[in-house]
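The methods section describes the discrete structure representation at length, but only in general terms. Since the whole study asks how a given chain folds, the encoding of that fold should be made plain. An entry of this sort, consisting of the sequence and the corresponding backbone structure tokens, reads as follows:

. . .
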Amino acid sequence: MSTTFPRTRKSRPGYNIDQVEDFLEEARRAYTSDRGGLSVVTAESIRTTAFSMQRGGYSTTHVDAALERLEDAFAARERERAFAEVGDAAWYANARASAQEILNRLARPKGQRFNRTGIFTDGYDPKAVDAFADRLVGYFQHGKPMSVDQVRTVVFKTKKRGYSELQVDLLLDAVIDVMLAVR
């Protein structure tokens, strides 16, 4: 019986144990493999990994926290490799270009920063997203403090005719990429 993470009660859902263990083994192999080799496990792939749920599975809180640490480690390694390949000036120029794309999106008028869902479809509450977007602008333009964890864990209420969840989530992923790139 595996004890990598605490398990939920048998009556409560948690992450599928076999899937988590398989993913962690794959990540372990990728991280310890030849540094020059290509890997299917990246900081981005870790961020977008999802597991099925099962009763009595691994605690989602504990697994998610471990995945965040793993993402940080892979991002640092990817940054080191890029510095060696293209140099730190090119790496930071790429991060600045990504940050500018984010700021260009967030410069749109409030209520119009992302596509809206249909009249009968839920999306993220535009007012809540716009408020968080203003905080992101403060981070990028004025150096106001914001952590990667604040971006990773932001939760928005939903409402009819809200912002497209996919577009908002993609922007948040880009923000995380930039934040990890310049750590």
